Automatic annotation (TrEMBL):
Enzyme Commission (EC) number: 2.7.7.27
Residues holding alpha-D-glucose 1-phosphate: 112, 178, 193-194, 211
Keywords, sorted A to Z: ATP-binding, Carbohydrate metabolism, Glycogen biosynthesis, Glycogen metabolism, Nucleotide-binding, Nucleotidyltransferase, Transferase
Stored Pfam families: Hexapep_GlmU (PF24894), NTP_transferase (PF00483)
Function: Involved in the biosynthesis of ADP-glucose, a building block required for the elongation reactions to produce glycogen. Catalyzes the reaction between ATP and alpha-D-glucose 1-phosphate (G1P) to produce pyrophosphate and ADP-Glc.
Residue numbers marked as site, Could play a key role in the communication between the regulatory and the substrate sites: 72, 111
Domain Nucleotidyl transferase: 21-289
GO MF terms, alphabetically ordered: ATP binding; glucose-1-phosphate adenylyltransferase activity
Domain Glucose-1-phosphate adenylyltransferase/Bifunctional protein GlmU-like C-terminal hexapeptide: from-to ranges: 314-414
Biological source species: Conservatibacter flavescens
Family, per entry: Belongs to the bacterial/plant glucose-1-phosphate adenylyltransferase family.
GO biological process: glycogen biosynthetic process
Protein encoded by which gene: glgC
Subunit structure: Homotetramer.
Name this polypeptide is given: Glucose-1-phosphate adenylyltransferase
Length: 435
């Protein structure tokens, strides 16, 4: 009992000395048109949340209430979301979620040049205003549940100056990650960023140990490492390419296995973490939520994922003519479904689906209208789309390629208002030509 109490006290004391920085400035170019007008962390997810809500909720659930969100690209919707949904922490208790937009502090043309530079350009504020003992750095674009307090505790007890969150991934997928090798004490002995031939784990030839893009630093070591990085003429201004190899060379880099702090497991007990950086992974991660036994349980109130849901009227369902049904789906508020079939799909707020339409394995973002007798399969429909009567999406991929965006795997079709507008223009031109 005493050891448990001691462990809780240690976590609490460490949390008070910790500043969290969430790096949320990236565009997310592999999501293509889905991030044309919004930063990747601001992309809608799970029926009524945004991607960044997972990192923020993990912080609050971990009693880490001193948070800075570093923004840059297309930040308006993200900043508005933070202001309206995440401004509840009491400043008088030195708790906050501060926004740290790019301010061109080096000169008039230098924006954030990489993940490390985003922190470096805020270093004076961090050191002189926040004055943390530890700095926890997170990516704002991953889906997972994690107790950061456990990672911080492991960092302090190991004697590390830098700790990196790690997860076992299939070796063939590890080319997109920083990959490391560790000893029996989890001290990192080798680290390589996005290798073409990822090294395998000892005894697991088909797996690699990958960085999750989550870092804990002793603050003084972080300041020193960033100064050394920025003064290196060959720098990439990146944690994975520059700072972690430096910490490895200094002998102060340790790994934290995600399984030690994971708070979201599937029904088989497997840990859940997803980088939703591609259309395929974004679609799949949403669909992971809809089954009776989901890969990630968003209804679990022991580790809640909060956000800024809009206040809506209840959704309405009318079935008068057709024998349709809604099955295995998440339906947001304020939706009106009339004589339409919906299965294995995620519909956000204020969706209108008209009679005769069928929706399967679709992710439909807010304020979309779907006309009569439409077929939507294996697709992502962006906000404000108006799908005309009779349109088929996800039925003929080659036809979809001519009109919309098809994912690299050829499985998922993305539809945006701009694509539909261009398509309407083509139809009008053809009709005028016929006249």
């Amino acid at each position: 009992m005493n050891s448990v109490v001691s462990k809780q006290i240690n976590k609490y004391d460490i949390a008070k000395d910790t500043l969290v920085l969430i790096l949320a400035g990236g565009r997310g170019s592999r999501l293509h048109e889905l991030t044309d007008k919004r930063a990747k962390p601001a992309v809608y997810f799970g029926g009524n949340r945004r991607i960044i809500d997972f990192a923020l909720s993990n912080c609050i659930n971990s009693n880490l209430n001193r948070i800075g969100v570093v923004t840059q690209y297309a930040a308006h919707s993200l900043l508005r979301h933070l202001q309206t949904g995440w401004s509840f922490l009491p400043q008088e208790r030195n708790e906050f979620i501060d926004m740290l937009p790019a301010r061109q502090q080096i000169d008039d043309s230098t924006w954030y040049r990489g993940t490390a530079d985003a922190v470096y350009q805020n270093m004076a504020i961090i050191r002189d205003h926040y004055r943390p003992k530890y700095v926890l750095i997170l990516a704002g674009d991953h889906i997972y549940k994690m107790d950061y307090g456990q990672m911080l505790l492991d960092h302090v007890t190991s004697g590390a100056k830098c700790t990196v969150g790690s997860i076992e991934v299939p070796r063939k997928e590890a080319t997109e990650f920083g990959v490391m090798a560790v000893n029996e004490n989890l001290k990192v002995k080798a680290f390589v960023e996005k290798p073409k031939d990822p090294p395998a784990m000892i005894g697991k030839p088909n797996s690699s140990l990958a960085s999750m893009g989550i870092y804990v630093f002793d603050s003084e070591y972080l300041y020193e490492a960033l100064e050394r990085t920025v003064n290196n003429e060959n720098t990439s201004h990146d944690f994975g390419k520059d700072v972690l190899p430096m910490a490895l060379e200094d002998g102060v880099l340790y790994a934290h296995p995600f399984e030690r702090s994971c708070m979201g497991r599937n029904t088989e007990g497997a840990i859940y973490w997803r980088d939703v950086g591609t259309l395929d992974s974004y679609w799949q991660s949403n669909i992971d939520l809809v089954s009776e036994e989901p890969q990630l349980d968003i209804y679990d109130q022991t580790w809640p994922i909060r956000g800024n849901p809009t206040q809506t009227y209840p959704s309405k369902f009318f079935y008068k003519k057709h024998k349709k049904s809604v099955d295995n789906s998440l339906i947001g508020g304020g939706c009106v479904i009339t004589d339409a079939g919906i299965s294995n799909s995620v519909l956000f707020d204020h969706i209108k689906v008209n009679e005769g339409s069928n929706i399967e394995y679709a992710v439909v973002l807010p304020q979309v209208t779907i006309g009569k007798n439409c077929v939507l399969k294996n697709c992502i429909i962006d906000r404000h789309c108006i799908i005309p009567d009779g349109m088929q999406i996800g039925v003929d991929i080659e036809e979809d390629r001519k009109r919309f965006r098809v994912s690299s795997s050829g499985r998922i079709t993305l539809v945006t208002p701009a694509m539909l507008k261009a398509l309407r223009g083509e139809i009008v031109e053809k009709e005028e030509h016929l006249d």
